[in-house]
Every structure is written in C-alpha cells, then in structure tokens.
Amino acid sequence: MTQNQNALMRLSDLNRDYQLDLSGQGVYNPVGNTAYGYNGEKVGSVKDALVDPGTGRIRYLIVDVGGWFSSKEVMVPVGHARFAEDGVYFDDLTKEQVRDLGEYRYDQTYTDETYASTDERVLRAANTTETDTSYRERAYRTPERLQLLEERLVVNKERFRAGAVEISKHVETRQETVNVPLQREEVVIERHAVTDARPVEGAVLGEGSETVRVDLEAERANVSKQAYVTEEVEIGKRTVTETQTVTDTVGREVLDVNKTGDVRLETGDRTSTTTDTTLTDRDRNNR
Looking at the domain 9-154+248-286, which fold is it? Predict the structure, then answer.
C-alpha cells in the first residue's frame, strides 16, 4: 500500500523511526498522561498522538477511554486539550462526548481530511452555531503551553553493614618479683669462764655425758596467685552523622524557538514564555 504523503504519523513511531530525543528538542510529549473532561472528570489516558510529519505539530491525541475489562481508543483534536502538570484536560468535552467518538484503529491511515464528520458533530454538540471553519481552526490549534523538564538529583539512604567489632580478652604473662622477709632461728652458744672453780663431788670425767638437742625453726615462702578486678569495660553503640558529597550529571530541557520571515517575539520569564509545539530544524535534519 502506498503511503499517503499527507498521512499523520504516531508520535511514538516518529520517535522510534527517526530516533529523535523529543523531550530534549522542545516537543511536548503527552503520552502516558491522564485525560480529564468537563469539571475534571477522568475520561481515560493518553496512549499516543498523531503528528504532522512535515511540521511536527500534534494534530490528535489518541485517548484510551475503555474500562477495566475493555479498551477503546479514540482521536481527540489537539485544540480541545489543555496541558497541565497533572494531566491533559478537555475542558469543553464531557466524558460521554469523548467516549462516543469513533474508535481509532492502528492499521488505518489518517489524515486531517479523513477525520470522521460524525466525530466532529459529537465534539460540536455543545456549540451548534459555530461554523465549520472556525471550529476547525480552534480544534487543530496547537496548544501554546509547553512544558520544559529538568532533572534533579534525588538521594535516598539505605542501611548496610559497614563493619563489625569483636571484643574479647586474652592472657598476657610477665615476670613479677616480690621481696618477702623470712625469719629463721639460729643457735646461740655463749661460753663463760668460771673464775672460782668449784669441785664436783663424785664426778668422774667421761661418765654421764649429755647431748643437748635444739630444734631450729625457719620461715619459707609459699607462692600462690589471686585474681583481682583491675578494669571494667562497657560495650555499646552510638550514631554519628557525617556529610557525603554526591555528584551526578543531570539534564534539563531548553526552549528552541524557530522564526521564519519578519517575526517579532516577546519573551518573559521562564513561566510565561509560549511557543508552538513544532519540530525544530535540528529534528527535521535528523530525518
């Protein structure tokens, strides 16, 4: 089948086929956002988008409006959408209007001209006096809100075993010398000369000899050992805080504005700057 040159491409296919970093080139990517209808009522989620490959403009949002046990995807013109940080809002459409749209089929080729007129009637139900031209200008106008994202480091902490300390005891030996005073008995013999000798009656030399026995006592050291408490050790834990510097590379999206012809552009601060959601020249060159 010949590819229609006016055929719209899915944003996911454009990203896959041309390997474009859409988030870094200023192209809004709504895929995955929750879709809300009138009064903030949830209608589904954005599954993909149809893009004009020539300009890079988003033309339709493909919204899954099915329930828990069913799936139905419909095409909503991008002009009905209001993009916010928490999702995509179709402020002028009810949940019933979105669900009554015709089912989107992935095997079908879509162009702006082939969008079903019955779907336009469903979307215009609340404003029947609006002309076809004014409605289409409004319905396919690219939203002016463009979100620029910035990465920031998010550091989480986890506890792990950093180490262990084992405390035990062992025996060390050393030589110790103690001076102990010990007493002992000695024999003292005193001899005295007799100046006036006296006779001993009946004494015969050599007879009746006597032996005197004197027991001597002495002290000796008996060595034993006794254990004494010299130190007490208490074991516990405490928490200390230290600061660790973490360094990593983060990126942020910057705005690319392409001007063609004599265009005057006023820019304010980062929160008020607006531009169309288009592919930049760098994107088209990558194709």
Answer: Photosynthetic Reaction Center; Chain H, domain 2 (3.90.50)
